[in-house]
Design a protein that fits this description.
heterodimer; A: 404 residues; six-stranded mixed beta sheet; four-stranded antiparallel beta sheet; 43% helix; B: 267 residues; alpha/beta; nine-stranded parallel beta sheet; 12 helices; 48% helix; 14% strand; globular
């Protein structure tokens, strides 16, 4: 576990840089806490007992390994490639997010911090954080944009049931980015007692590398499962990218497998030719937000633009800095899928496989369906089914003109 | 010598402390800023700190967040902020003006191009909340060509060795953040500030300004006993935001500015 790469993939450097991206662009008050977190995290990487604790939690609490499932009816319908789903939706709490929250919560315990805060968009990371806080008996506050609270009500109530305080954020665009601003304001105020569990491979160093390492279990399992189930590596990996943690977790263990292609799928919202999207790698420029240098959705004056996606978890103007680096290197291809395409894929998976995917993951599915027809018979695509879609039923029902 | 250094030298010679007055550029209206800056300078502000509006002011409390949102709604950008300084400089060539904000608007213009722009506008220094020295080399070099000061922040959580490094790299003055928190919060602990500032002053001769959460003449007076300068922001921003008319705003600013300057002078 937590294998370090060499050469071009030996990222980040000591200051958290992935090539020109990443780094640590934060208020001075946070610098010592980030140093402490980096130290504790690096110690944990070398500590056998931490590894054992983490693995035990993943096995007995999360229910790992998650299956690698061949979606045969889906493949038949969209063919000719074979589509496999990495079933992160079957994890406890219904998404990949818990891999990271468990890792960071164990680090918080090591640091003696008994209060945990988080930002959340779709609510999946908020639920995963509230869950581990309950499991460890820690106090928990989750910041969530008022707009997201409205469209993800079931998750808001889940967090409350788990004992977390959900703080509505009414500033700015009232979505994920504003929740992150507010979480950073809380952290700077309560830095002595509080650990901030960032939910993606975003934010200042060490978060992008640390969250990737905790999520890399997805790719490590997937790689071993491919070798066991089909006796070879897959031809293509596809994952959705908001901040990009499920994609980084799947991709990272395959980076040195030159024959494995990778596609990261951003949210094209109402279309890349409109301004109503959330695809910084496809339609943005490099800049600095939330502690890192990375691709952002900004205007010509450097102000951050409001984004749009039907999926709250992808509705974010930035992206993890390692994705920015992998894009520039050409190792991963980044594309964008519209709201409508994602919805169609959502319905297709429901009807062909009896699996309700998250709208976030539906973006990756839509891309897999799109490219499947261009591949050869027997080619293998693995889609990271990063979360389940129960939380999205209200959104989809409304589009169908039904009220739940 | 830069306007900032000259100002501190003159104040030191007179055994006085500096009042650094913060307002957000273009708030509450675009054309409110230049009259407000002149009023501040006329009634006791020694340095004017002009906040550059940003969509995601992650270190700021509600007062400055709202002022930033108002300014953005007024179409105020970093370029527009530079124009405001240019207009101010037409009739004031002595009061130092420091911009305070976040990094991305500068990157959007480009570090070199911005340094030219800032110099042409008559800007004397920059405080970039989310730019620690580790990431500041290229901006520091571009600004140094024009003798524009890059002012770093020191926090209560900054360890001693790092404090010395920050003090060493900061030019013009050092900005000491008075508590763990966001601008305008209510947990100023004067004794704690005095303790840290004394420590900071043993590491360098660069003047130390203290800001975040200083709202009253009483606070200002206590902090000025130890620090070289006192920054007041959120309280001024609230006065500007609450004024019914331009006349009310300027009258209130005048009275508040005089009270702060008087408090820090009569220690």
């Amino acid at each position: 576990m937590f294998q370090r790469k060499e050469g071009d993939n030996a990222m980040p450097d000591a200051l958290g840089h992935f090539g020109p991206y990443g780094g640590r662009y934060v208020a001075e008050t946070l610098m010592s806490a980030l140093d402490e977190l980096t130290r504790v995290y690096e110690d944990a990487l070398d500590d056998q007992s931490f590894q054992v604790d983490f693995q035990n939690e993943l096995t007995h609490y999360v229910g790992r390994p998650s299956p690698l499932y061949e979606a045969k009816r889906l493949s038949q319908e969209v063919g000719p490639a074979r589509i496999f789903l990495k079933r992160e939706d079957l994890n406890h709490t219904g998404a990949h997010k818990i891999n990271n929250t468990i890792g960071q919560a164990l680090l918080a315990v090591r640091m003696g911090k008994r209060r945990i805060i988080a930002e959340t968009g779709a609510g999946q990371h908020g639920v995963a954080t509230a869950t581990v806080a309950a499991r460890l008996g820690a106090a928990c506050t989750v910041y969530m944009g008022a707009t997201d609270i409205e469209r993800q009500k079931p998750n808001v109530y889940r967090m409350k049931m788990l004992g977390a305080h959900v703080e509505a954020v009414n500033s700015g665009s009232k979505t994920l980015k504003d929740a992150m601003n507010e979480a950073m304001r809380d952290w700077v105020t309560n830095i002595d007692t509080t650990h901030y569990i960032i939910g993606s491979v975003a934010g200042p160093h060490p978060y992008p590398a640390m969250v990737r390492d905790f999520q890399a279990v997805i790719g490590e399992e997937c790689r071993a499962q491919c070798l066991a189930q089909i006796d070879r590596l897959p031809d293509l990996l596809v994952a959705c990218v908001g901040g990009g943690s499920n994609a980084m977790g799947l991709f990272y263990p395959f980076l040195e497998d030159a024959n494995v292609k990778m596609i990261g799928v951003e949210a094209a919202g109402e279309g890349m030719d409109t301004m109503r999207h959330a695809a910084p790698l496809n339609g943005g420029t490099p800049g600095v937000l939330h502690g890192a240098n990375t691709y952002l959705m900004t205007d010509e004056d450097g102000l951050i633009l409001d984004t749009h996606s039907i999926s709250a978890g992808l509705d974010y103007p930035g992206v993890g800095p390692e994705h920015a680096y992998l894009k520039d290197r050409g190792r991963v291809e980044y594309v964008a899928i519209t709201d409508d395409e994602a919805l169609a894929a959502f319905r297709t998976l429901c009807s062909t496989e009896g699996i309700v995917p998250a709208l976030e993951s539906s973006h990756a599915l839509a891309q897999a369906i799109k490219v499947s027809s261009q591949l050869d018979v027997g080619d293998v695509i693995v889609v990271n089914l990063s979360g389940r879609g129960d939380k999205d039923l209200e959104t989809v029902a409304q589009l169908d003109g039904e009220l739940l | 010598m830069s306007r900032i250094s000259t100002t501190f030298q003159q104040l030191r010679a007179a055994n006085e402390k500096a009042f650094v007055a913060f307002i957000t550029a273009g708030d509450p209206e675009v054309d409110a800023s230049v009259p407000a800056m002149h009023s501040l300078a006329a009634h006791g502000a020694d340095i004017i700190e002009l906040g550059v509006p940003f969509t995601d002011p992650e270190a700021d409390g509600p007062s400055i967040q709202r002022s930033s949102e108002r300014a953005i709604a007024n179409g105020v950008t970093l370029r527009k902020t530079c124009e405001i300084v240019t207009e101010f400089r037409a009739s004031n060539t002595t009061t130092p003006v420091v911009l305070m904000g976040y990094l991305n608007p500068i990157l959007a213009i480009g570090v070199e191009a911005f340094a030219h722009l800032a110099h042409a506008a008559g800007i004397d220094g920059l405080i970039i909340v989310n730019l620690p020295p580790e990431e500041a080399d290229s901006l520091a070099a571009a600004l140094a060509k024009f003798e524009i000061d890059l002012i770093f922040l020191v926090a209560p959580t900054t360890p001693a060795a790092r404090m010395a490094n920050l003090a060493n790299k900061s030019t013009g003055f050092i900005y000491y953040v008075s508590f763990k928190g966001i601008t305008g919060a209510d947990h100023l602990d004067v004794e704690d500030v005095q303790h840290h500032v004394l420590e900071l002053k043993t590491t360098s001769n660069t003047p130390v300004a203290v800001g975040f959460g200083i709202k009253t003449a009483e606070h200002a007076k206590a902090v000025a006993k130890i620090a070289d300068a006192v920054v007041v922001g959120s309280a001024l921003v609230d006065i500007l935001g609450n004024g019914e008319s331009r006349f009310d705003q300027l009258k209130a600013i005048q009275a508040f500015t005089q009270s702060i300057k008087q408090a820090i002078t009569s220690h």
